[in-house]
Amino acid sequence: MLHRRFGRTGLDVPVLTFGAMRIPPEPGEDPDANAARAAATLRRALDLGIDHVETARGYGLSEELIGRALREGAVRRDEFLLTTKIPPMETAAAFREALEDSMRRMGVDFIDNLDIHGINTREILEESLRPDGAVESARRAMDDGLIGSLGFSTHAPLDVILETIETGAFDSVNLHYYLFNRRNLPAVQRAAELDMGVFIISPTDKGGLLHRPSARLAELCAPFTPIELNQRWLLSQPAVHTLSLGAARPEEFDAHLAGALRDGPLTPEEEAAVERVDGAMASLGDTYCSFCHACLPCPEDVHIPEILRLRNLVLALGMEEFGRYRYGMLAHHDEKTGERTGGGGHWFPGTQGDFCTRCGDCLPRCPLHLAIPDLLMETHGLLSGQAGKRLWE
Fold first, then answer.
1. Rounded to whole angstroms, how far apart are CA atoms 305 and 284?
2. I want to staple 50 with a disulfide (CB 3.0 to 4.6 A). Which of 45, 178, 283, 302 is the partner?
3. Angle between helices 372-383 and 320-327 (to 10 degrees)
4. What is the pLDDT of residues 116-146, one digit of tens each?
5. DSSP structure class, residue 266
6. For residues 169 and 156, what is the distance between their CA atoms, to the nearest angstrom?
7. Rounded to a whole number, what is the largest CA-CA distance in the chain?
8. 24: preceding bond cis by omega (within 30 degrees)
9. 69 CB neighbour count, 10 Å cutoff
10. In this structure, how many other beta carbons lie within 10 angstroms of the beta carbon of residue 305?
11. Beta strand pairing call for 172-175 and 147-153
C-alpha cells in the first residue's frame, strides 16, 4: 500500500485509511459474531497495508470492537496508527474525561491523531477554541503524551472550513472533497500551503454511492470503475494524503485496491474518463448549477446549491439512487402535519426544495441566471419520497 507524509503531523499514512464506522453490530447480529466480523475486517485491512484506523466516540460500538480485537490478539497496537474523533465538550475537564474513556474502550495508552469531531459551524469552532475548551484540553493531553497530533473533522460550509484552517490550531483536516463535489478545493489547497494533513471523508459512499454506480456513470468511467477513477482523481493531487474506506467486512476492500496502487498524475486514459464525466455535466447547458453557493442564504433554509448539485448528478450521470439518498437527509414536510421534520442538523443542514416560496431572493445572486425555484421543484419531483438519516444519527 502506498503511503504519504500526513502533513506536519509527520505520520506516514497509507493512501487508504480503514474507517471503522461500519463495524458495529448490524440489525439482529449476535455480539460474538459482530466481534468476529469486526476483527476479521480490521485484520484484512492491516494485511493489505492499510495501517491507519480511524474511528470516533460517536460510531456506536466501534471503539469497543477495536479494543476487543486488540485484547483478544486479532491485531497488535504496534501494527497501526490510530485516529479517533471526539466532539467539543462544555469544559476542558469533560473533554479530557471523554478522551480517557475512549482510550479505555480501545485499551490503548496513546492516540496518534485526535480530531475534534464536527466543527460544522462558526459557533462550534468558537466553542472548541474558547479558553477551557476542547482544543486547550487536547493540547494538554499532547503535553501529557496521550496524543500525537490534533486535527478536526468537518461537514461545514467552505468559509467555515477555511476559517478553521486559518486558526493554526490544527495539524490536519478531515473533509468532503470528490470528483463529483469539488467545492472544497480551496480548503485542500490552503491546507497544503500550511503543511496540514488532508484526510478525505468516505469518497465511495459520500462521494456518490460509487459501489452501486448507475449504468450511465459506469459507462462514462470505463475502463475504470467509478471507485477507481474517483480515487485516482483524488490521489493524483499531492495535497491529498489519505481516503477513508468504511468497510464492514473483509471482502469490501477489494473494489478499492486498484485505484490505490498507482501513484503520480492521471494517465491520458484517466484524464479522458474525467473529461467524459465533465462533458456529461456540460450537456445540461443553461440549467447546470456550478455549486458556487452565491444563492445562499435562503429565508426558508432551502439548501439550494446541494439540491441543484444532486440534480446535476441525476440528469447528467444517472445517479438517482445517490440523489435520493442525500436529498432524503434534508429536512422535509411531515406527511401528517405538514410541519418541518427530519434533517441532519449541522451535519447536513437545510430543507428540501418544496420549502421554496418563490420569493425570488436568490435569483439576482445567481451568476448563471438559473430559474432556481423551477429547478428546485423539478428536483423535488425527481428525488422526494425517501426520508433518510445519517449513519450514526
1. 16
2. 45
3. 100
4. 999 999 999 999 999 999 999 999 999 999 9
5. P
6. 17
7. 62
8. no
9. 25
10. 22
11. parallel
**pTM across the whole model:** 0.95
**What is the C-alpha separation between 126 and 124, in angstroms, rounded?**
5
User: Is residue 385's pLDDT more than 80?
Assistant: no
State the amino acid at position 69 in one-letter form: A
Residues 207-262: pLDDT tens digits?
Answer: 999 999 999 999 999 999 999 999 999 999 999 999 999 999 999 999 999 999 88
Q: Are 304 and 360 in contact (CB under 8 A)?
A: no
Residue type, 73: G
Query: Hey, is 169 helix, strand or coil?
Result: coil
Strand, helix or coil at 348? strand
Q: For residue 341, what are the β-bridge partners?
A: 332
366: cell is 445567481
Show the domains of the chain with their CATH numbers.
3-267 (3.20.20.100), 285-383 (no CATH)
Residue 230 contacts residue 208 (beta carbons within 8 Å): yes
Burial class (CB in 10 A: 0-12, 13-18, 19+), 358: exposed
Nearest to 172 by CA among 99, 244, 232: 244
**Residue with cell string 423539478:** 378
| Backbone φ and ψ of 257, nearest 5° | -75, -40
Are 120 and 155 spatial neighbours (Cβ–Cβ below 8 Å)? yes
Q: Which three cell numbers stand for residue 293?
A: 453557493
* Residue with grid cell 448528478, as numbered in its chain: 313
C-alpha cell at 73: 490478539
- Look up residue 280 and give its three cell numbers: 456529461
Residue 181 phi/psi, 5° resolution?
-160, 95
Statement: residue 161 has pLDDT above 80? yes
Quote the cell numbers at residue 324: 435520493
Residue 166's Cβ-side half-sphere holds a number of Cα atoms within 13 Å equal to 9
| Strand duo 3-5 + 12-14: pairing | antiparallel
Counting other chains too, the contacts that 291-297 makes at CB distance below 8 Å and 24 or more residues apart are 291/181, 291/182, 291/183, 292/367, 293/157, 293/158, 293/183, 294/365, 294/366, 294/367, 295/362, 295/365, 295/366, 295/372, 296/362
Query: Which set of grid coordinates corresponds to residue 372?
Result: 432556481
Q: Which triple of cell numbers denotes residue 112? A: 496518534
Strands (E), the chain: 3-5, 12-14, 16-19, 52-54, 81-86, 111-116, 147-153, 172-175, 197-200, 242-245, 332-333, 340-341
